[in-house]
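Researcher: Next entry in the queue.
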Amino acid sequence: MQGVPVVDDSLQGHVRAKKVNGLAERIKDAILPMRSSVAYRRFLAARLVSQTGSSMAPVALAFAVLQIGGGAGALGSVLAVSMVPQMTLMLLGGAVADRHPRGRIMVVAHLVSGAVQAVVAVLLFTRHAVLWQLLAAGVISGAAGAFFGPAAQGIVRQLVDRELLREANALLRLTQNVVKISAPAAAGVVIASAGSESAIAYDAVTFFAAAWMLSRLRVPLTPVKNTRLVQALREGWSDFWSRQWLWIMVAQGAACITPWLIGYQVLGPLYARDHLGGPAAWGLIVAGFAAGLITGSVVVLLLRPRRVGLVACTATASMGLPLTALAVHAPLPVLVAATFVTGVGLDVSINTFASYQQSQVPVEMQARTSSYSLLGQQLPIPLGYLLAGPLAAAVGVVPALAGCAVVIVTLAFAPLFSRQVRAMRLPARAGEEGRSGAVPVTAGASSRS
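Model: Structure for this entry, 449 residues:
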């Protein structure tokens, strides 16, 4: 019959099979870091074990403060006090992690944190805990975190090949995000049945278990210069400042994190109380964000985005989306969808940017350069918390949300004026050039199995 196209069933079947096989190869490639490196598997398992306890700890700590008679002010102090030593000592932690075995530093940091949590658990079990002890525990834990963070950031480059950094970081983020969603609910069950002290004791056990697992890592030593500590810090700053793309992106992140914290973490719950009926609605919004973070890790594993600068700037701009939706009184399903999109974008951005930084910075400079990056991004966090109340009082919650959204979107794409930022791309994997995003092909993927 004229004008009726003839459908070739065999051709359609071939296309479908190609799509299925392409997806299977993408999944196989996504777990290459685990298949190719025993050290990475141990590192991933240790981080997963530790995260199960660390994700339960804030909930348990909150009820522990209430248990000893503390109120909102005491709780805020306990939760915030760890940030001071963490930011103060982070540069020192980076210098130490580039001068000594990073695996050993992580083991010691976990042992210290585990001991602190064990003492807190004993104090709570024996009903001898008082506020100053919990504050002191937070200070010590924050100090341990200042050394653990740069070492953990720097060691990934030593565990996998350079071209697998994207997948290695995505797997870490994926497992941690899944735990961050499930662990607080588990903490609620544990606290209700056995008390907050039991949840904190579990956190101590996971620190010790993770320390043992990390002690079994066999990581090549990085080349270390026998320089004084001050000189090591100067070298870290020189490396950080010499990379224009790096300090521009850190500055952008620092400038945008303040309005995001004001709008989402502080004003968002206030808006939910006044306009959405209370915490149940806000819980759905937060769940949408968490689901987006998990989805973002899956996106990185399967689609493997390479244009780091464009991805990071677009993701930062997406932080204005939920704030805009709140400001225009969007219905709850739209708010949940907006936070989901932001979660996807942020996780893709964090994964790709961390992978690019690890691929560009020399292995012997990883921890120091990362410590400057982390410190630059964390410094505005206390400022955001302090400004939220006065801003809402001065202009109102809804106008403040709108203003925060405008600031984020205005600053998000500014880094793209830099040629170095526009040129940020992750290296292609074998056979990855020319792949279509819609129908992935298998060229070059199976050869790395």
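Model: The two ends are 49 Å apart (CA to CA).
Researcher: Noted, moving on.
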